Amino acid sequence: MITPLPGAIPTKPGSGTLPFFGVDAEVVDKDGRPVPTGAGGYLVIKKPWPSMLRTVYKDPDRYVEQYWKKFPGIYFTGDGARRDADGYFWIMGRVDDVINVAGHRLGTMEVESALVSHAKVAEAAVVGRPDELKGQALVAFVTPKGGLKADDVLRGELKDHVVREIGSIARPEEIRFTDALPKTRSGKIMRRLLRDVAAGKETVGDTTTLEDFSVLAKLREEEE
């Protein structure tokens, strides 16, 4: 529903670009209010669109609960997103992706939104890795804006920024800088692969939908 029209509009690497005809998309906060440009939030569709889903097979109550209850009268996609100054949408991933850190349930989208709100960050993805003490620890993969130096100073800035935005419990245990994040051909970040990398697994899961294999290879090289 958010997709580029080849040859009609310029694309941006990592962005889903603009909504298709008849799709009235918006990024809102937890109260259903539009968020400022560049801020992370919940991806919703404000009006019906052609060929929209009408129910879940044999489970109409689940359809209402999952897609319509969070924001009454507005279709909730279940994804987190942000929109840039050109109106392009950037899909950040599922908002039901929750990490349990020392008994606290943290949504990865919330931490990612805090990171991308920093002036020096172009893109970020947060995953959990096993931790003997906390159960899970937060690992952030961050792409700095072009030309900016990725070093320990920036790493410290970002950790402090997340603490100010959310709280000390959301402070990433580790921040890894990368030129790009592994994504599907539709532009979604493949957090499943990032979780494997963060956990130090020698092999990763299914990569058939990965758009650029060199991104994953580089992440593994940096890990080694």
Brief account:
This protein is of the alpha+beta class. The protein is built from 5 helices and 9 strands; from the N terminus they run ββαββββαββαβαα.
Strand order in the sheet with the most strands: 1-2-3-4
Secondary-structure class = alpha+beta
Distance from first to last alpha carbon: 39 Å
Q: Profile the largest sheet.
A: 4 strands, antiparallel
**Per the principal axes of the C-alpha atoms, what is the gross shape?**
globular
Average pLDDT number: 86
| Number of DSSP strand runs | 9
Question: What is the CATH class of the largest domain?
Answer: Alpha Beta
Q: What's the number of helices?
A: 5
Report on the architecture of this protein:
With 224 residues, the protein is an alpha+beta fold. It has 2 domains: 1-96, Luciferase, domain 3; 97-223, GMP Synthetase, Chain A, domain 3, CATH 3.30.300.30. The protein contains 5 helices and 9 strands. Strands 1-2-3-4 form a 4-stranded antiparallel β-sheet. Strands 7-8-9 form a 3-stranded mixed β-sheet, sandwiched between helices. Strands 5-6 form a two-stranded antiparallel ribbon. The protein is globular, with a radius of gyration of 18 Å. The model has no long low-confidence stretch (mean pLDDT 86).
What is the element layout, followed by pairings?
Blueprint: E1 25-28, E2 40-45, H1 60-67, E3 75-83, E4 89-94, E5 98-101, E6 104-107, H2 108-116, E7 121-131, E8 135-144, H3 152-165, E9 174-177, H4 191-198, H5 213-223
Parallel strand pairs: 8-9
Antiparallel strand pairs: 1-2, 2-3, 3-4, 5-6, 7-8
